[in-house]
Protein 1
Amino acid sequence: MIATPDRTPLPRNFFDRPVLEVAPDLLGRILVRTTSDGPIALRLTEVEAYDGPADPGSHAYRGRTPRNDVMFGPPGHVYVYFTYGMWHCMNLVCGPEGRASAVLLRAGEIVEGAELARTRRLSARNDKELAKGPARLATALDVDRALDGTDACASGETPLRILTGTPVPSDQVRNGPRTGVAGDGGNGDIHPWRYWVANDPTVSPYRAHVPKRRSS
């Protein structure tokens, strides 16, 4: 018999750890997005770690800006950024305040509220594709910059919360290079910081960084 996922909210000290500890430990956890139309819950199946000033792939590599301010803490808050002029991506801040580390939520399985997610992801061919990729995940959950800075560990009503769920056994966790990251940040020998659940159909395909071509 499959055990029912634990619905206890994760405490802030879960996130107040090094990013490389938090990232794989997020697999199997449940992210709940509360909307005016009802809740959507997602089981995390793929994430990427970003480690601030020590990481050339991180938005905080060159220091603090208005865009990345939330990354500097406190832990347990949501960092949302806008990319390619059309997509949002969602991260969870971790580590000690001031360190600017965060975990990008890359993919997951919608386990509650799929009917709501489908209305936002009309191009998805099936439910496994609803949150298969970071932009798709944010779109399915109706996450945008208005939720940047949300405290996912707050008590009471909050639009985003992380529950204990069912942690993935270590022998089912895989890791490798991060998707679409340029230079040393995308080198899997240096930063094998993408983590995913082995053989899970909701995990997104790996894609190496492709440099933009300048027009002649």
Protein 2
Amino acid sequence: MRIAIAGAGAVGQSIARELLEGDHEVLLIERNVQNYQPKRIPAAEWMLADACELASLEEAGLESRDVVIAATGDDKVNLVVSLLSKTEFAVRRVVARVNDPRNEWLFTEAWGVDVAVSTPRMLAAMVEEAVNVGDLVRLMTLRQGQANLVEVTLPESTPLAGRRVRDLRLPPDAALVSILRGGRVIVPQADDPLEAGDEMLFVATSDVEAQIQAIVHDRPPE
């Protein structure tokens, strides 16, 4: 994919390295001369410009990018970049970093944001996952609350051990998208067996999350 990242600080550079390892084409847009360091990531394309300015985004050819990531340390900048990317350049996918959790409510489709990433929320989710095996943990909100990425780790006592993926009777608005097991990422097939300790990732709407947890624990929904 062709990806543009607004903000080449520590976060932006880290994202760029990860994407380059996946053979994606990356453009870093940075307005701060101190952060403009092409030698650190020579495989990326660099641009010294203000991503909040329409002319800069036109020069960057944003209309040809598959994804834009607004990764600066300023929520106002990230919102402006997201809005311009979506409304002026029709970028298919816009991901925005939320620095202050109090601003999270702004990062919606109205501002052009497809996926809002809040580090505090994700860290809190990881803590909950670590201490509450068997509980459903919401990792990320997709499409402004229309769906969530949620995770459930099967406890040692799970009644689902040895049963098959096809035995999970999921509601219509839920899908099992991946199983993490022993460092492996498994794309679930109908005949795949389930094991204690499996981290199961679902995409689901909020109103069926309780049903998912009940199904995973093999009990009737409350």
Protein 3
Amino acid sequence: MKLFIADQTCSEAVQIIANELGLELDLVHFDVWNRTTSNGEDFTQINPLLYVPALQLDTADKDILTETIVITSYLADQFPDAGLVPPQGSLERAKFNQLLTFLATEIAQKHIPLMRKLLTEEGTAWTRDKLVKAYATLDARLADGRTWLTGEQFTVADAYVWGTFWHERSGAEIGHLKHLMAYKARMDERASVQKTIQDEAKVVADHKAMAQA
């Protein structure tokens, strides 16, 4: 399978889940500024909306999946024994999907206008406040001493949160959320996260070198 990624974006969540499952994905870097890919493919043919992640499956039709929560859940569903998502059709899965949707709408998407400086001063303050409150919800969830967001089992949700820890770039002050910060430190040390950082750095560096050659 081929995964199209961009530097320090939520595509890292897909890499983390692939690493948790021991999957070897062919990583392709998409430069969002000059719209080139590290393998020379036209990304508009992969996702006309020009955002990552995009996973090209090794099916006969080379089907393409987009959206972080869709791709990560799809991969996890292929290996149910890994426990990265609850079983399909269960109440636990419905609650889990509720959590993923919350992460997508109240955290991941709230960062984007802040990082791109698209808001008025009032809009910036409002959005940052919403973002900090969303992170505070996660902090409260972790306050009972659980290791991961849903308990002692690492899941797709944890990978997604780590892939969207953009608070420093967004100017959202969350250092006071001690449970969340301790959680991030645990995530930083996880082998699948470390491999994601290293693999992404290599493909990005190779793309930049190729562009400068």
